[in-house]
Amino acid sequence: MICIPVPRDGRVDEAERRRTVKVRIDKETCVGDETCVEICPEVFEMEGDVAVPKMENIPQNLEEKVKEAALSCPVEAIIME
After folding, report:
1. Mind listing the pLDDT tens digit of every residue in the chain (81 residues)?
2. What is the CATH number of the domain that holds 51?
3. Cα-to-chain-centroid distance, residue 50
4. Which of 5, 29, 32, 37 is positioned for an S-S bond with 77, CB 3.0–4.6 A?
5. Whole-angstrom Cα distance, residue 46 to residue 30?
6. Residue 39 domain flag
């Protein structure tokens, strides 16, 4: 889980509020296992023999599913930035 620390006064820094998590797949490493597609079909799909992200910037409500997909990838081809 990605947490945003909240200052004692309760204000969240504007830059933190706008931060986005990006995802990409190393196509040279991907073996087409489809685990990511099964875990998070909202973000991943198959393109031939490899998985590809449907989007680069991940909505906050899907970050945990993308992280689960990345951790479940047998060859660690999913890169979150």
Report:
1. 233 444 555 555 555 555 789 999 999 999 999 999 999 999 999 999 999 999 999 999 999 999 999 999 999 999 999
2. 3.30.70.20
3. 16
4. 29
5. 11
6. yes
In a domain, 5, yes or no: no
Q: Domain count for the chain, please give it.
A: 1
**Closest to 51 in 3D by CA, of 64, 39, 65:** 39
One-letter amino acid identity for 59?
A: P
Q: pTM of the full predicted structure?
A: 0.76
For the chain, the residue count is: 81
In 3D, which of 72, 68, 79 has the Cα closest to residue 27? 79
Residue 32 covered by a domain: yes
